[in-house]
Amino acid sequence: MASPQVSAAPSRQTTMASIASDEAVPDTDPNTTAGLLTQRLQAWKHAVVYLEEYMEAVERIHRTQAKEYERVLKTISKPLREGQHFDQSLGGVAGFFENMRVNTQALINTNIETEKSIKGSALPIVERLHKEIKHKAKELAHGAEKSAKEVEKARNTTQKHIELLGQHTASFEATGGKHNPSEDPYVLSRGVVHRLSKQVIEENNQHNDLVAVQTNFETFERHIVQALHQDMLGAAQSVPPDFEWKAFTKRSADALINPSDPPRTVEAIQFPNMGHPSTKPLLEGSLERKSRNKLSWGYTTSYYVVTPCKFLHEFKDDDNLRRDPVPELSIYLPDAVIGAPHADKFNVKGKDRSGGMGGRLAGTSELAFKAHSPAEAEKWFNVIRGAAGATGPAPALASPGGSGSDAASLAAVSAAAGSGSEEKPKPVVAVPSPQESGITGGDTVASPVAVASPVVAGSGAATPVSMDKKVSVDAPAATAAASDEKPAVGKEEKA
């Protein structure tokens, strides 16, 4: 029969270092160490208060005893009556009473000296220890406990962002990646790393602070015990200066900080959905982009990312520590038009959906990019085109500010101009509709102002009638004149 396995108590290395290296938000309370040290200070303060109260009571007793012995001394202070009947030498009765007076006075002086010693030497040491412990407690409260609160706040912020990432990675699988730019799992994943970086800095600062506090605690406890050695005799002097600290660190090893533990690093931390496909970019790197401001010239370098959510994001850089990685520009590629690369340059025309002021002012615009090499430009073009879902040849792009429907017409005009044709497009002229009221006969009626071309009923097109005299009048003017004269002509015919 196999003997039951006894689970060993977790060592400090497994409880602190493993948690620090694996989990993004450890379950350990950051106030544990600081709170334990605060309780330790409280215990020392109470011990010193007990000793202070004991010494005050002893000092009061000696003061009271000195007064009582003074009363005793008064009873034998007067010389013996009829003293001439006693021998005044030291061995007689008169000498006996003199010895009693001397001994009583000695007791009075001893009590007075003890009272002065306690009040002037021992009590000030204990009172100073009391003040030092209170000051140490305040220092711990404003230092280590404050850093513990900062760590707890940073962990809560990280946890909220991790939960937000989990929501939108699940939404990516359900909806196929239709997100707002700020909800892109790639952007959220970088946001988690940014908040983790701040959290790790706070945790490492707290670790260093607590190591310094623990080292100072050991020295401080030595100072307390040595101060007690000056005050008390006997048992107190037999206590070694580091006896209590060694016993405390052995009992509370799982709650104290190990000075040999390595600092936390973001690279060693794992968090949920950090490896989800929606958080992995299709392509990322630095590109140069021409400014959308027509008054400026030249290119500026930024960091660009094509994500599985089909966004082209622009960031200032790829640093997740100094600033929150929020996109400065976001283009949804299925709604964009991608121009074919020319050497190391290519264009993307679309609307900035990042919500920034520049995107709201610019609206839909054409962005001119320049890669580091023609091969890299071709690579960016293929990835962007694949994310946009295009399968045919790259379309021709219009000038910035034009609509997508105008692109084809402008391209056709440009092609016609390039072929050498001088034919200008004919203007569109409005054609009057068939007449439905007034004179509808087939007779030709002369107008005193102009001659109008009658309309054949049901034809749907204006057909001129042959006339002996040609009148050179613009079509719109003739139509307007005819409509003005029709009621007058009708009255003449009825008469």
From TrEMBL:
User: Residue ranges under compositional bias (Polar residues)?
Assistant: 1-18
The UniProt annotation puts the region (Disordered) at 1-33, 416-445, 460-495
Q: Which organism is it from?
A: Chaetomium fimeti
The PH domain, residue ranges: 280-389
Q: Which PROSITE patterns match?
A: PH_DOMAIN
Keyword Phosphoprotein assigned: yes
Bias (Basic and acidic residues) ranges: 483-495
Q: Name one Pfam family in it.
A: PH_20
Q: What is this protein called?
A: PH domain-containing protein
* Keyword entries, A-Z: Phosphoprotein
Instruction: List, as start-end ranges, the regions of compositional bias called Low complexity.
Output: 473-482
